[in-house]
Amino acid sequence: MKKKTEQLNDKMDKLISLAKRRGFIFQSSEIYGGFGAYDYGPLGVELKNNIKKAWWKLFVTDRSDMFGLDASILMNPKVWEASGHLKNFSDPLVDCKKCRKRFRADHLLELNSAEPKHEKEKISELPQTCPECGGELTAARNFNLMLKTFIGPVEDEGAVCYLRPETAGGIFTNFKNVLNSMRARVPFGIGQIGKAFRNEITTENWIYRTREFEQMEIEYFINSKDWKKKFEEWLELMKKWCEFLGIKKENLVLHEIEDKDRAFYSKRTVDFEYKYPFGTKELYGLAYRTDYDLSQHQKFSGEDLNYTDPVTGEKFLPHVIEPSLGVDRTILPVLLEAYSEVEARSGEDDAKHEKEVVLKLPYELAPIKVAILPLSKKEPLGEIAHKIEMDLRRNLVVQYDETGSIGKRYRRQDEIGTPFCVTVDFDSVADKKVTVRDRDSMSQDRILISELRNYLNNKLIR
Ligand code: ATP
After folding, report:
1. Residue 124 has pLDDT above 90, yes or no
2. Is the pLDDT of residue 436 over 60?
3. Model pTM greater than 0.90?
4. Cα→Cα distances 276→111, 174, 254, Å
């Protein structure tokens, strides 16, 4: 009998292999030996887009107090001076003098503990020897995570700029633009989805920590007197989001960050942690950042960023609540929660004694919504099936599969989480009906082709 941790790591290995085999996630630059990064394949990009679409709907377009934004990745370096990133955005780094491997010091502290450490400064407790080779470790020093590049043809100091380490910078610098152009009234928020870059000391755990990743971030501007109530509202919405993703309550840990471990300007921070197979680690963050950001940008830019309420006339510098979510970090729990192995589904195929994989993704997130499976390649079944395919493609992502036994084809679709399979058989010619098989209940309904699109849309679009 395997221990629970072994079973969990087994699950990670199976998931990574499935993701590659079925076109979700590939190693980046694989033919050149990789680059510690990952690429999303045809199914991965659908899953990722569905996550971003669902987030955008729940957090932005469903609300009258939210606006969207798509700001530049390369910004004036002063933005990062003002935000404190140039000075303080660093992690403590130690080197092994023998094998030359580099470690994030706070990650060494976590090695012997299942819990994430929030105290990066507890350097006195650091192990003295390398966990890989036993060699001596150097003292910890700070390593800035900003990725530098140059603008224009001359690579001198004046041309230095940075790839944004978070999307928030573009939100703060556009605060006044959005406020004025949208005639917004505080409280209101700005949401943005986009790439962020960090020169992480070590990349780890597949897509959990990479140097290039995507964020879904919100800055919600408030009057400071409302912060407690607004914080609770965002906390609830983030919980609702996690539930929508299929994250089980018992796998989610809400970690209230203690005073001494919070950034000095934050009055409350809650980390959403997930029980990954490799430990309980941060998934998302929710922070009340007071007026730190706008006051810094006001100071460094010289622009007046105060807000005057059009009704009460009250003038103040808005405070912010920041729900910050990683797209890639979302994909990992979504896949882990959805991955399930079931006993072979009898009567569907030859391989009755194998275990089968079913990816029980929420319908909204499934990359392929419907598979069209003609029982035979011969006409007229092919013609009928292609007609159905073209009709459904108008608003659904569809896959057409005519090879292999029907049981094998069902299994292929189960493995990638397709909610519905439509089988076109010889009876379809006369009765103009097809069989719709449900991924989870395996129920099979006979539906008139003329009603199929409505039937599926009713089930899939909630
Ligand atoms: P960590 O402690 O894991 O380095 P962090 O506290 O620095 O993360 P934040 O600055 O709060 O992370 O970033 C907001 C969100 O962006 C995180 O909650 C996470 O979802 C995502 N994120 C941050 N760094 C990475 C990364 N290197 N790879 C993938 N996602 C990331």
Report:
1. no
2. yes
3. yes
4. 14, 36, 14
104 forms bridges with which residues in the sheet?
93
Q: Is ligand 1 within 6 A of the CB of residue 285? A: yes
For 330, counting Cβ atoms within 10 Å of its Cβ (0-12 exposed, 13-18 middle, 19+ buried), the class is: buried
DSSP 234: H
Which residue segments constitute the domains of the chain, with CATH numbers given?
2-71+163-335 (3.30.930.10), 344-460 (3.40.50.800)
For residue 90, the surrounding DSSP H or E stretch is: strand 90-95
Spacing, Cα 305 to ligand 1 middle (Å): 28
d(CA 174, CA 239): 28
215 Cβ closer than 6 Å to some ligand 1 atom:
yes
Q: Which two tokens stand for residue 373?
A: 């499976």
Ligand 1 centroid distance, CA of 326 (Å): 7
Is 268's pLDDT higher than 80? yes
* Cα 210 to middle of ligand 1, angstroms: 9
| Rounded Cα distance, 433 and 125, in Å | 69
pLDDT at 351 over 90: no
Q: Specify the higher pLDDT residue, 100 or 38.
A: 38
How many Å apart are CA 353 and CA 345, to the nearest integer? Answer: 9
* Beta pairing, strands 212-222 & 252-256: unpaired
